[in-house]
Design goal:
single chain, mainly alpha, 6 helices, 3 strands, 59% helix, elongated
């Protein structure tokens, strides 16, 4: 054990605190879903795509050009992002335009970037 790590040497549990936290803890299934959502953010290509969409609504070809990757790779990642409700799309003629699904996604990206730049 790390000499500097805090230790819980008390024998008694702070029951009031434990009950308070238990009362507001999300269900196990919700925590699992949250962990799965954060896994989506664990891929740098998906993060790069989200940052393109952070700036503008674009089509697959534009994303592929901006990121210098194939359109099939972009399409694959967009499917993952759509399945996790992080992006949405609209069709204009034969062209499909993608954008961030909502302000929550914008906020997650913004706060994540703020955090790593501190």
């Amino acid at each position: 054990m790390d000499e500097l790590a805090p230790r819980c040497e008390l024998i008694s549990v702070h029951e009031g605190l434990v009950h308070k936290v238990q009362a507001i803890m999300p269900q196990e299934e919700e925590l699992y879903d949250l962990a799965e959502l954060f896994k989506v953010f664990g891929d740098s290509t998906r993060i790069r795509i989200l940052y393109v969409l952070f700036e503008s609504e674009v089509c697959v070809c534009d994303i592929a050009s901006l990121l210098n990757i194939s359109t099939s790779a972009v399409s694959h990642q967009l499917r993952v992002l759509k399945a996790n409700r992080l992006v949405k799309y609209r069709r204009e003629g034969k062209t499909v335009y993608y954008s961030l699904a909502d302000d929550h996604v914008y906020t997650i990206l913004k706060q994540g970037m703020d955090h790593i730049q501190e």
